[in-house]
Design brief:
Length: 333
């Protein structure tokens, strides 16, 4: 899209498609709920109606959670790609999700923690420590931050934390059932009590990301260029890192590691909105929410009466796309 008018039109269409996706998410599942029941559940709730109870207690919370996580992971991925100047960067590829997951498994299996507030802080701590380690390893050398080194560092940490997580579960098999479904990335059985404690952190991350958009446009030109233009590069990178930790760590605390959303969506948003992050980030938030909502609906329907964890669905969708991008980058080099 070239002109500002076209970008506004695309944004409005995206919001309408997001609203439609949310309605689809509320309606379809093991039980298909009629539009009249959905309307009544939202505006004239009757506890005697089983369909309305399902909408209020299961479908609506699940829809809000999917939209929030999809938007968060997509925006976090776009920020990471801007900071690292690497189109393959995302919370899942650079080990952020793996670090957060390891911290939560440690808390659940060995410390017996189930309070979402404590798990949130464990997730943020795990993702934050991982982000720092990846940045340090990716910056070693006279050339500074290298896109290739940061990917290699992320892959190494994914292997390390994945092995650590498996080791924890082997040592404490009694905790396996508590985390195995969560580890695949799932929003099944999540309710508003899970989302509410985390939502303020996600909101802060979204707002901070949009405020950083103009600075990201400069940073993506390269550190030396950004410094010559008067940008305090270290502070912008630090602020961006905090935003990524809040968005990715908060998402993992709710639903576990859901991969590849942070790669697919920024690429699509860049194609639709261009490279200006002031437009690209809102597009990421909308498209990310739509993608995870529709992936979750597909996860419910694909093997009825059972359902697939949504993390498996996003992996199935995203893996071919990731391979395509990787091959494209290799050809470019």
């Amino acid at each position: 899209m070239g002109s500002t008018a076209n970008k506004w039109i695309g944004l409005i269409l995206g919001v309408l498609l997001l609203a439609a996706s949310m309605l689809i998410s509320i309606r379809f599942g093991f039980t298909v709920i009629g539009w009249n029941e959905i309307k009544a559940a939202l505006w004239n709730y009757d506890e005697a109606s089983m369909e309305q109870v399902v909408v209020r207690t299961a479908r609506l919370p699940r829809t809000l959670i999917a939209a929030s996580i999809g938007a968060s992971l997509a925006v976090a991925g776009a920020i990471m790609q801007a900071v690292t100047r690497n189109p393959l960067a995302s919370p899942s590829v650079l080990g952020i999700n793996a670090g957060a997951s390891f911290a939560i498994v440690l808390a659940i299996t060995f410390l017996g923690i189930s309070d979402i507030n404590i798990l949130l802080w464990m997730s943020l701590a795990g993702s934050g420590i991982t982000a720092v380690i990846v940045y340090i390893l990716g910056s070693i050398g006279r050339e500074g931050l290298s896109p290739l080194r940061i990917i290699l560092a992320g892959c190494a940490l994914i292997a390390l934390f994945s092995s650590g997580t498996q080791g924890l579960l082997v040592l404490n098999q009694s905790g396996l059932q508590d985390v195995i479904f969560w580890l695949t990335g799932s929003i099944a059985s999540r309710d508003l009590d899970t989302l509410i404690p985390v939502f303020p952190y996600l909101c802060f991350g979204w707002i901070a990301a949009f405020l950083l958009a103009g600075q990201l446009n400069i940073l993506v030109l390269g550190e030396n260029t950004a410094k010559n233009l008067g940008q305090k590069v270290v502070y912008i990178q630090l602020a961006a890192g905090v935003v990524v930790v809040l968005l990715a760590g908060g998402s993992v605390a709710i639903a576990g590691p859901i991969g590849l959303v942070g790669i697919i969506v920024p690429y699509l948003s860049k194609y639709l909105a261009g490279r200006d992050h002031r437009w690209m980030l809102p597009y990421c938030a909308i498209i990310g929410a739509i993608l995870l909502l529709l992936a979750d609906v597909a996860a419910r329907l694909i093997i009825l009466p059972e359902e697939v964890p949504v993390g498996i669905m996003t992996a199935a969708i995203g893996a071919p796309f990731f391979i395509y991008l990787a091959r494209k980058e290799l050809r470019r080099e």
